[in-house]
Specification:
This protein has 118 residues and is mainly β. The radius of gyration is 14 Å and the shape is globular.
Length: 118
């Protein structure tokens, strides 16, 4: 199967009562395989759902960046409309920099995106 990179249509980062982090994302048809998130503490992250399925988590809100940067793992919750299809832990892999030119995939910084939305 060929590797694919796609942007998450919608995702939500939420914090549980004991500080655990959840990322709610649209469900995929395949099963995750060694899921992990590569994050550098900035605007975007890459969710490696499986070796063939890479999902860009764009525009990470500034208020949750530090929490993500210090998390060992995140509970991924895959949903179909309002229903939970699956949940599992994705390991966090913190890096100094994700070597991607985000502008080439149509992404800007959080601040620029918010200015354009006004």
């Amino acid at each position: 199967m060929a590797s694919r990179v796609r942007k998450a249509n919608n995702f939500v980062v939420a914090e549980g009562s004991e500080g655990e982090l959840y990322i709610y994302i649209e469900a995929s048809s395949s099963h995750p395989e060694k899921p992990r998130i590569i994050y550098d503490g900035r605007d975007h992250a890459i969710f490696l759902r499986s070796p063939e399925d890479r999902i860009i988590l764009d525009y990470i809100h500034p208020e949750v960046r530090d929490k993500l940067r210090h998390a060992d793992g995140v509970i991924m919750v895959e949903t179909i409309l309002e229903n939970i299809k699956d949940s599992y832990v994705a390991e966090m892999q913190i890096v100094d920099s994700i070597p991607i030119d985000w502008a080439k995939v149509g992404l800007k910084s959080w601040e620029k995106a918010m200015l354009e939305a006004k």
